[in-house]
Amino acid sequence: MPPPRLDFLGVTEAEEAAYRRLLRRGVREDDEPGAQADAPTADRLVELGLAIRTHTGVLRPIAPARAVEHLIDNRLDALQEELEQAARTGGVVESLQQERTTAPAPRPPEEAPTVQQIEGMEAVRAVIDELTFFARSESLTTNPTGIISRESADFSRPIDLRVLRRGVRMRTLMAAPALDDRATMSYLHELAGKGAEIRISQQPLERMIICDRAAALTPLDPAHTAKGALLTREPGLVATLVTLFDRMWAMAQGLPAPDDELPTEIERRILKSLYTADKDESGARDLAISVRTYRKHVASLMTRLQATNRFQAALLARERGWF
């Protein structure tokens, strides 16, 4: 019975054959750079996340479980982008929104309300999801509390990264308490690393979300945001809110550099492995790196975190929001 194929994950027969050869062969000291696959195939294996290059240029296979996980993530990202694009260009949401109207006949576009009252947090979240989904050029946001909990960051991350991947300019204003909250600062630096523009304000902020300078969301009652919000598409009101945002932005300071460099992806994975792997050998094997490289990363991370042991390093990293 032939082995299952990887074509459903975007891997060609030739690429799969080259990866399987790498798995059978592993890495040998007498290998020469490029000896295990022709250059285009080797580059493609690295691009797919099926292999990495050693410091000498030799291909090394990624562990199968990690490789398949990476392939699935790539396919999901591509499919999500394809579906989002189809939904945006096909008018799906607009069509469904028309079903919610209570009027006997659809309201002509020119008569659509330019200011709507949105009641309840569930309805507000739905409007936020819709605004960010359709944002094309710019997203302006303020956070008057200055705090983003780890749970909120986990919820917001896929939404924010999706917006940034589409090339939307994201500008976010945070209140000063952000400076004293490690989890918040870690998330802000993560977004900044992906292209977001972030500033910290020492002055009070008005809560608002503005998308494409065409729609704005503000709370009905700033002191009790759970009551609901006002959604406006009235050009004059939106322009006024954009001007207010720009003034607050001009008075704010840039996001401070991190106290220490944020961990790389491999360092994040190593920190996670400190919780689960009993031995360096198993941790290194799971990450498809040498034990020597694994231990070198661990020692460096312990120094940066000022940890006395590996478990403490993992705890401190978790507190900083590093994973």
Q: Please bin the fraction of helical residues.
A: 40-55%
Give the termini separation: 41 Å
Task: State the secondary-structure class.
Answer: alpha+beta
Q: Total strand count, please?
A: 10
- Number of discrete helical segments: 12
Mean pLDDT: 82
Order of helices and strands: HHEEHHEHEHEHEEEEHEHHHH
Strands in their spatial order, largest beta sheet: 3-9-8-7-4-5-6-10
Mind telling me the CATH class of the largest domain?
A: Alpha Beta
CATH architecture of the largest domain: 2-Layer Sandwich
Task: Count up the domains.
Answer: 3
The CATH topology of the largest domain is what?
Answer: Endonuclease, Chain A
According to CATH, the homologous superfamily of the largest domain is Endonuclease Chain A
Task: Please compute the radius of gyration using only Cα atoms.
Answer: 25 Å
Features:
Arc Repressor Mutant, subunit A, 10 strands, 323 residues, 12 helices, 8-stranded mixed beta sheet, alpha+beta, two-stranded antiparallel sheet, 3 domains, Endonuclease, Chain A
Give a written overview of the molecule:
The chain is an alpha+beta fold and about 325 residues long. Strands 3-9-8-7-4-5-6-10 form an eight-stranded mixed sheet, with helices on both faces. A two-stranded antiparallel sheet has the order 1-2. The chain is globular and about 65 Å long. The protein has three domains: about 90 residues; about 140 residues, Endonuclease Chain A (Endonuclease, Chain A, 2-Layer Sandwich), CATH 3.30.870; about 55 residues, Orthogonal Bundle (Arc Repressor Mutant, subunit A), CATH 1.10.10.10. The longest helix has 27 residues. Helix 1 packs across helix 2, helix 6 packs parallel to helix 7 and helix 9 crosses helix 12.
